[in-house]
From TrEMBL:
It comes from Tripterygium wilfordii. The lineage of its organism: Eukaryota, Viridiplantae, Streptophyta, Embryophyta, Tracheophyta. It holds the Pfam family Pect-lyase_RHGA_epim. Keywords: Cell wall, Glycosidase, Hydrolase, Secreted, Signal. PANTHER family: PECTIN LYASE-LIKE SUPERFAMILY PROTEIN, PECTIN LYASE-RELATED. One of its GO terms (biological process) is carbohydrate metabolic process. Residues 46-91 form the Rhamnogalacturonase A/B/Epimerase-like pectate lyase domain. This is Polygalacturonase.
Length: 472
């Protein structure tokens, strides 16, 4: 009898042990990742390896920073990938490292913390001289990095949710001591990829590369209420060699805003945005532009090429924003194959934007706007074809618009074009443009041919990468 009882006990222990082993194996998940990247990584880890908890309420700020700090040891050994599994991962601002990939699972949601203590304050950008929301500093962006090389933020269309309502309310009530954070920002960095993600409800701008070069933004969906303040989609700022493609943006501000510093600060910093490609962009923004150049353009904007753009229920197609005191320039702009539905303006150039960093700007610092080329566009249900307002004594020059058909709305303005202080030519444009842009025969438009040579960023091809890992 005693022997039988011992046998039963041993069998039960064995079964429990086997069950525990099976449960343990189930607890560790094997994940295979496939993605395209500027570079693949030799090492990988999961945020759960560093204490991350994806319950939507536990703060993971320390877990993210600990993981990134640990993985930085592999910078010279093939780089590292940090995987964010399915779940809701609450976090405040954290900073990435070089030769690094942050990858979000398709069911991962990175939630921006509502605790302002998790958002360190840093100095204003030197090319701005002050914050955009307040004269003081600015909150660090959710995903941040400075002086980095070879960084990827990507996923299988995972989500970054900025939970911006709290910040929007503070902005509207005038209760911000510092400028609101962005979702993703890289400063003084080189070789950056941001791709295959959905960005929701940013506190302010969504993606902000600044003082950086060799940047690819690809396959990004950006969604924010159309009434949300300053939720610009993608803002390349004093950047060289940038490619933005295959993005869908619904926002409360410009879908793409090209910038390079503000008034005397941008003039002194002197770093232009140039060699920029924007292609296959879809934009919805009833109160702002599909593509805006400025208004902070004091360091200069040059050689921007946009093609295959769709705008729906958006205030303007292409808008140039500047003013006396800006200095700088916007030149060699090329936009073609644009389709627009339900627009207030197709073309809008503003020489009196008027917003200044402070009272120390030089009113004699006049911007140079020249070499603005638009062709092969179609629009319907348009309130006004164009509103082109240069600066007295400083006209916007070398404007060339060709092969553009604009269908006016039933309640359109009686005068479809208004033009002051602009110079240029048009050809095959309907309705008939203003007299300052006289119609020319197509053979006379050789002076505004689009460039045939490719930009360096167009030569960059992404690699097919794969990674596998076991995580809790």
């Amino acid at each position: 009898m005693e022997f039988s009882w011992m046998v039963s006990l041993l069998v039960a222990v064995a079964l429990l042990s086997l069950s525990g082993s099976v449960d343990s194996r189930k607890a560790r998940i094997l994940e295979s990742l496939e993605y395209t990247g500027i570079n693949c990584r030799a090492h990988s880890a999961s945020i759960t390896d560093f204490g991350g908890v994806g319950d939507g309420t536990t703060s993971n700020t320390k877990a993210f920073q600990d993981a990134i700090n640990h993985l930085s040891q592999y910078e010279t050994e093939g780089g590292a990938l940090l995987f964010v599994p399915a779940g809701k991962w609450l976090a405040g601002s954290f900073s990435l490292t070089s030769h690094f990939t942050l990858f979000l699972h398709k069911d991962a949601v990175l939630l921006a913390s509502q605790d302002q203590n998790e958002w360190p304050v840093i100095k204003p950008l030197p090319s701005y001289g002050r914050g955009r929301d307040a004269a003081a500093g600015r909150y660090t962006s959710l995903i941040f990095g400075t002086n980095l090389t070879d960084v990827i933020v990507t996923g299988d269309n995972g989500t970054i949710d900025g939970q911006g309502e709290l910040w929007w309310q503070k902005f509207h009530k005038g209760k911000l001591k510092y400028t609101r954070p962005y979702l993703i920002e890289f400063m003084y960095s080189n070789t950056i990829q941001i791709s295959n993600l959905t960005l929701l409800n940013s506190p302010s701008w969504n993606i902000h590369p600044v003082y950086s070069s060799n940047i690819i933004v690809q396959g990004i969906t950006i969604l924010a209420p159309i009434s949300s303040p300053n939720t610009d989609g993608i803002n390349p700022d004093s950047c060289t060699n940038t490619r933005i493609e295959d993005c869908y943006i619904v926002s409360g501000d410009d879908c793409v805003a090209v910038k390079s510093g503000w008034d005397e600060y941008g003039i002194a910093f002197g770093m232009p945005t140039r060699q920029l490609i924007i292609r296959r962009l879809t934009c919805i923004s009833p109160y702002s532009a599909t593509i805006a150049l400025g208004s902070e353009m004091s360091g200069g904007i040059e050689d921007v090429r946009a093609e295959d753009i769709t705008a729906v229920h958006t205030e303007s197609g292409i808008r140039i924003k500047t003013a006396r005191g800006r200095g700088g320039y916007v030149k060699d702009i090329y936009v073609e194959r644009m389709t627009m539905h339900t627009m207030k303006w197709v073309f809008w150039m503003t020489g009196n934007y008027g917003s200044h960093a402070d009272k120390n700007y030089d009113p004699n610092a006049l911007p140079v706007i020249q070499g603005i080329n638009y062709r092969n566009m179609v629009a319907d249900n348009v309130t006004m074809a164009a509103r082109l307002e240069g600066i007295a004594g400083d006209p916007f020059k070398e404007i060339c618009i060709s092969n553009v058909t604009i269908g006016m709305a039933v309640k359109a303005k009686k005068v479809p074009w208004t033009c002051t202080d602009v110079e240029g030519i048009t050809s095959s444009v309907t309705p008939r443009p203003c007299d300052l842009l006289p119609d020319q025969e197509p053979e006379n438009l050789k002076s505004c041919n689009f460039p045939a040579e490719k930009l360096p960023i167009d030569m960059v091809e992404l690699q097919k990468c794969s990674s596998s890992m076991k995580y809790m």
